[in-house]
Specification:
The chain is α/β, with parallel strands linked by helices. Helix content is 33%, strand content 24%. Helix 7 links the parallel strand 6 and strand 7. Helix 1 runs parallel beside helix 2, helix 1 crosses helix 8 and helix 6 runs parallel beside helix 7.
Length: 497
């Protein structure tokens, strides 16, 4: 790799200020002329989108639980290779993971990447106690390369002076930044976290403000020197793949639908997909597609606009009825419903799925989610285990019992009643988000189904409708795709919801 300089920005808990510090560093170093690679620990789309916005190049998620250690290490090395410095934002508290031992925590990620850690400590109404918290982290895991501290939400110069002195004396590491309380909200948030960059109205001004905050309140030269103490990581082999026949894959990409991992889109391209970004807000019809991919996002905050675009809603429903393969995750599931209820208002959606969905005041599913396919569906073989995550405030309020479901949920909530993965014809919609690096066959299965549909269109004649119906009961391309065991079950076989 070209540069080995890297820092992990960790916190004592969620909302410590990790994102503010990470964005400030990326913005300031980029303004200084450095090429910065940005990464987000965990599956979060929104923080990653902000980091990518600040860096000027897509940020990558690093999630050991979803992807495995070898994949994470190689992904980091590959995408940091051309950068001058890499910033890795942690999630939650430093040692918080999927269990009491801290599996897949930010600390474990830092150890895997052999990266020094900067700990962001919110210092509201404390001075020397902050030193006890930092010292506790050092004692908890002596192997941790804790290289410095950034204090956040400091109210006065006296508090800053006393807290700095206590930490440096008790812990033997420097305080590398002191952030004050900000009167205005630099990064506005809502129910799923921060407002996305696509919906923020003043990104240019915000970038300059973040860089100014970092210049004024962080020791950028010492932080860069600390990053430079990391040793180079071993190179990983480049990914090579012979693509299948080209297929056209459309995906909604606008302010309502922004949740797409770059790796997922790249994996589709490696399988031969020609990607077409589409707008569910502005387009009135679908182009000629072999597959439609609808990722997650915020359809609930765009409900009125999505509903007003009736021509596209009708086009999606008609395409589904003609057999177009559609793969939808979370927000995509909501768009495929008949009705979305937000507050006291109901908004017609595309009506592909005969369900109603409502926005709740609390999360309905939040965290890692594991499912197993136990019924036929357009994309995945029966018996395949899928590991992903979910974070949604919406839930299905009507119609779930009328639908076939393909997934048995072994961890998480899904659509409810232990089920997820709703199937109608060649449509599969679920609340689980999958990362292509954690499910390597994901893109292959989607492109296989798209290829079958493309051949059906090409060979269309008077009997094409009958052939399409019979094709949905065949092996679904699993022999060509590989992986998983097969079972001859019709896609219309009912599964208890």
């Amino acid at each position: 790799m070209g540069s080995h300089a890297r820092l992990v920005i960790a916190g004592l808990s969620g909302d410590s200020g990790k994102t503010l510090v990470s964005l400030g560093l990326v913005a300031a170093w980029r303004r200084a002329g450095l090429a910065v690679a940005a990464f987000k620990k965990g599956p979060d789309y929104i923080d990653a989108s902000w980091l990518g916005w600040a860096a000027g190049v897509a940020a990558r998620n690093l999630d050991v639980h979803l992807m495995g250690e070898d994949v994470v290490r190689c992904a980091f090395a590959r995408h940091a290779r051309q950068a001058d410095i890499a910033v890795i934002e942690g999630n939650r508290g430093l040692f918080d993971g999927v269990d009491a031992s801290g599996s897949a925590s930010t600390a474990r990620l830092a150890a895997l990447l052999e990266a020094p850690v900067v700990l962001v400590v919110p210092a509201t109404k404390m001075t020397a106690t902050a030193a006890a918290l930092v010292r506790g982290c050092q004692v908890f895991d002596p192997r941790l390369r804790l290289g410095g501290v950034v204090l956040n939400r400091v109210a006065s110069s006296r508090q800053a002076r006393v807290t700095r002195a206590a930490i440096e004396a008790a812990c033997g590491i420097p305080v590398l930044g002191i952030l004050p309380r900000f009167d205005d909200e630099l990064l506005p948030s809502r129910h799923l976290g921060l407002v996305t960059p696509a919906e923020h109205g003043a990104c240019t001004d915000l970038g300059a403000r973040l860089a100014e905050v970092a210049d004024a309140h962080l020791d950028l030269s010492e932080l860069r020197a600390l990053a430079g103490t990391a040793r180079p990581l071993d190179e990983c082999p480049e990914q090579t793949q012979v693509p299948s026949e080209p297929v056209v894959v459309g995906y909604f990409r606008d302010s309502a639908f922004t949740f797409y991992y770059p790796e997922n889109l790249e994996a589709l391209e490696r399988e031969g997909a020609i990607l077409k970004p589409l707008s569910a807000l502005e387009m009135s019809e679908l182009p000629d597609l072999d597959l439609l991919y609808i990722g997650g996002g915020f359809p609930e905050t765009h409900a009125a606009e999505l509903s007003a675009n009736q021509s596209l809603r009708d086009a999606v429903r008609d395409a589904a009825s003609r057999g177009l393969p559609i793969y939808a995750e979370c927000g995509g599931l909501v768009y495929l419903a008949e009705v979305l209820r937000v507050g006291g208002s109901e908004y017609p959606m595309s009506g592909v799925l005969p369900i109603h969905v409502g926005l709740s005041p609390r999360p309905q599913g939040h965290g890692y989610c594991d499912v197993e396919t136990d019924a036929a569906n357009p994309f995945f073989p029966v018996g395949m285990t899928l590991r992903g995550h979910e974070f949604h405030y919406t839930r299905i309020t009507r119609g779930l019992e009328r639908l076939t479901s393909a997934y048995s949920v072994t961890r998480g909530f899904g659509c409810g009643a232990g089920r997820d993965g709703l199937v109608v014809g060649n449509v599969l919609a679920s609340y689980i988000h999958l990362h292509a690096s954690g499910v390597p066959a994901w893109a292959r299965h989607l492109c296989c189904r798209a290829s079958r549909y493309r051949r059906t269109k090409r060979d269309s004649d008077a009997s094409s409708e009958k052939g399409r119906q019979e094709g949905s009961q065949e092996d679904g391309g699993w022999r060509r795709c590989g992986g998983g065991r097969r079972r001859d079950v019709s896609a219309s076989t009912p599964v208890p919801a």
